[in-house]
Amino acid sequence: MENEKSTTQANLPEARRGVSRRDFLSGAALAAGAAAVAGLAGCAPQAAGEAAGEASTAGGDTMAATGAMQTTDPSKAVWPVVEEVEVGSAGEGEIAFVAEPIAADEITATHDVDVVVCGLGPAGDAAALACAEQGLKVVAVEKQNRGNYNSATIGGTNSKLHEHWGMTYDTDAWIADAMVDNAFQGDMTLFKHFLEKNGEAVDWYIGHFDNQNLDDYPLTFAAGDFPDFRDEWDKTALSRSWNTSLNLPYPPGELADILAGILTEAGVEIRFNTPACQLVTDDAGKVTGVIVKGEGGYEQYNCAKGVVLATGGYEFNQQMLKERCRPRGVPGAWLTGAFGNTGDGLQMGIAIGAAEDEFPQPIMLDPEQLMPYLRVNKLGKRFTPEYEPYGHLAMAIQAQPGTYDFYVVDGAIAEKIDKIWTPSSSCYGPKEVWVGAATSENALKADTLEELAELMEVPADEFVATINRWNEMAAAGKDEDFNFPGEMMMTIDTPPFYATKEHADGLCTAGGLLVDTACRVLDKERQPIEGLFAAGIVSGGMFYNTYPHNLNCLSHTRNCLMGYTIGQVLGGKEA
User: Fold this and answer.
1) For residue 360, is the peptide bond before it cis, meaning its omega torsion is within 30 degrees of 0?
2) Does the pLDDT of residue 22 top 70, yes or no?
3) pLDDT at 477 over 60
4) 3-class DSSP state for residue 288?
5) What span, in angstroms and rounded, lies between the C-alpha atoms of 334 and 219?
6) Cβ neighbours of residue 65 under 8 Å, at least 6 residues apart?
7) CA-CA distance, 395 to 353, in Å (whole number)?
8) How many CB atoms lie within 10 A of CB 144?
9) Greatest CA separation for the chain
10) Which H/E stretch holds residue 188?
C-alpha cells in the first residue's frame, strides 16, 4: 500500500475528492487538471480479426496460418479479448517525440555540455543534482512549465531514517515478495541493487533539505493513529504490506519548486517549456546529444558524458496505451497531473534501438476506495479478500465483468469503521473522510438490500445471499470464502444501506526501457547503448502486470537511487 497517488480533483466525483492517499500527504490541487483531462473519453479496441487481417500484409511482421499474430511493431499489436473494454488515456497530451530525422538546417542553436537530463520529476531531479555534484556541466530540460512531484514520500530498507525509527527488515522475504509480484519476469539484479544501495541514496537525497530533524520524517504507517507501529509489515493483510515508506515534511505541491531551487544552487541550468524531441547518435550508435524544442525552434545539445531520459510514462498517449497494455489492464479512471507524460523518452530510446519491457506493460493501479469495505461485482457476488495491498485489490477489480465493482456499507458505518482501522489504513486520513466517501450523494442508498440491488442493477437474490453469507461469517469471526481477517469483519445489517460503484484508478504506466544496475539503457541484445541512461518510470525491467504497492514506496525510492547512481557513474565513481 504505497502513497504514490495524485488526484486531478476537478475531474472527480464529489465522493472521491479528498479521499486519495496522495491528497492526504500533499494537499496539492492541480488547477490545470480540468483542461488537461478533457480528452478522457476512451475508444473500444479494434476487432481482433479485422486488425489481424491488416497486420498480416505488413512487411516485417510474422503471422501463422491460423491468424495468430506476432509483431515487433507495437502499432500493429492485437489484444484478443473475451469482453471488450474501453482503453482511455488520462487525457490528450502533446507529443514531443519527433520520429523523422531533424535536419541540420532546422537547428537554431547548438550547445556543448556534459549531461542533459530530460524531465524534472523526482528521478530527473535526483539525476541532475547527482551529476552536478560530480562537477559536471548539467542542463535539465522539462516539457512543462514546472517540474512534477506527486507524493511527499520516500522509502527503502536501510537508510538512516529507518535506523532512526528502529526499523530492520527481512530482505529475503522482501525480495521474495518482489519476485512473486512480477511473476519472476523482473530483473532480480535490479532488485538486489536496490536493496544494497537504497539507503545510501536516500541519505544523500534527504541531506539536501533544510529540515534535518529526523523526527519530522515519520514512517507513513505510523503517521496516523498508530504512531508506535514498528512491525516490518502489516500482518492483517493477506499479502505482506511492507512498512518501508516515510513521509517528507513538505507538501508535494511545493516539492517541485523546492527541488528546482536545490538544483539551481548546485549549478544545474534548468529550462522549462523545453521538451526533448530526438536523440543524436554517431556512426557507431553512441548517443552524443539530444535535440530539444525551445521558444525559437529546435536546439541541439552535444553531451560529452551522456543523455539521461527521465521523461515519465505514457498515461496521456492513448495510442501507446492501446499498443502496450492489455485492454483489461488499463483503468477506468486516471489520477495523475503529469500532463507531459506522452511516452517521449520511451519512443526516443526505441528509435535508436533500445529494448523495452515485453507486452503487456504494467500500469500502477489503485482502487478508488482505499478502505477494505465489502466488494461485489455486477453479478452481485463477492470476488476477493478486500484487505489486500492496493495494487492487488485494483487488479481484482479489473478482472471483474465490466472492470468495475461496488463497495457496500450500512448506516452504522461510522461506528463500525473501527473494525478496519489499522496502521496501513489510518495513515491516509481521518475516519470521517472514509465514512463520508462511502455514504456520499454519489452512493446508491436504500432501506432494504433488495431495493439497493435494484439500484445497483445486480441480481437481487445473489446480492442478498452474498450479504447474508458475509454477515454469518462476520458473526462467526471467520471468512471461510476469501480469508479476510475475521476480527475485521463488520456486519451489514443496519439500514440504510449504501453501495458505490468503483473502478480501478491509474497512477502511471510502469513499463519502459531496459536498463542495467548502472542505469545504462540496453539494446535488444541486452548490451549498453553508450551515452544513454534512463531513470524513473521511463525505465523498465522490474515490474510485470502491475506495480507492487505492497513494497511500499519502491517507485519513489527507485527514482532517487537511479538518479544518484547516474551521478556516480558519470562522475567516474562506483555505482
Assistant:
1) yes
2) no
3) yes
4) strand
5) 27
6) none
7) 32
8) 20
9) 77
10) helix 188-206
CA–CA separation, 536 vs 271, rounded Å?
Answer: 20
Query: What is the C-alpha separation between 336 and 338, in angstroms, rounded?
Result: 6
At residue 250, the pLDDT reads 97
Write the pLDDT tens digit of every residue in 171-201.
Answer: 999 999 999 999 999 999 999 999 999 999 9
Helices (H), 33-170: 33-36, 48-55, 122-132, 160-164
424: which 3 cell numbers? 496501513
* pLDDT for residue 62 is more than 60: no
Average model confidence (pLDDT) across the chain = 89
Q: Is the pLDDT of residue 28 over 60?
A: no
Nearest-CA neighbor of 1 among 372, 389, 362? 389
Number of C-beta neighbours around residue 490 at 10 A: 21
> Other CB atoms closer than 10 Å to residue 163's CB: what's the count?
13
For residues 396 and 387, give the distance between their C-alpha atoms in angstroms, rounded to a whole number: 12
**Contact assessment for residue 502 and residue 277, using Cβ atoms and an 8 Å cutoff:** no
CB burial of 508-546 (b: ≥16 within 10 Å; e: otherwise) equals bbbbbbbbbbbbbbbbeeeeebebbbbbbbbbbbbbbbb
Cell 508506535 belongs to which residue?
228
Say how far apart CA 409 and CA 496 lie, in whole Å: 9
Q: Cα-flanking dihedrals φ and ψ of residue 124, to 5°?
A: -65, -40
**Cα four-point dihedral sign 520, 525, 530, 531:** negative
CA distance 357 to 353: 13
Q: How far apart are CA 74 and CA 436, in angstroms?
A: 43
Average pLDDT rounded to a whole number, residues 356-369: 95
Q: Answer whether 337's CB lies under 8 Å from 33's CB.
A: yes
Antiparallel, parallel or unpaired: β 504-509 and 333-334? parallel
pTM recorded for the entire structure: 0.89
Question: Sign of torsion, CA 444 448 451 457?
Answer: positive
Letter for the amino acid at 48?
A
Q: Residue 478 CA to chain centroid, in angstroms?
A: 34
Q: What value does the mean pLDDT take over residues 363-368?
A: 95
Cβ atoms of residues 146 and 506 within 8 Å: no
User: What pLDDT is attached to residue 212?
Assistant: 97
Give the pLDDT band of residue 575 (cuts 50, 70, 90): low
Q: What does the DSSP assignment read for 466-484? A: HHHHHHHHHHHT--TTT--
pLDDT exceeds cutoff 60 at 9: no
Task: Identify the band that residue 69 occupies on the pLDDT scale cut at 50, 70 and 90.
Answer: low
395, 548 Cβ separation under 8 angstroms:
no
Residues 6+ apart with CB under 8 A from 233: 240, 241, 242, 243, 550
Helices (H), 266-383: 318-324, 344-351
State whether residue 400 is helix, strand or coil.
coil
DSSP state of 324: H
Closest CA to 396 of 252, 303, 502: 502
Tell me 438's DSSP state: H
Q: How confident is the model at residue 1 (pLDDT cuts 50, 70, 90)?
A: very low
- Cell numbers representing residue 214 in the block: 529526523
Q: Which residue in the block uniquely carries the three cell numbers 479485422? A: 50
Residue 50: per-residue pLDDT: 38
Q: What is the pLDDT of residues 79-98, one digit of tens each?
A: 888 999 999 999 999 999 99
Mean pLDDT over 113-142 rounds to: 98
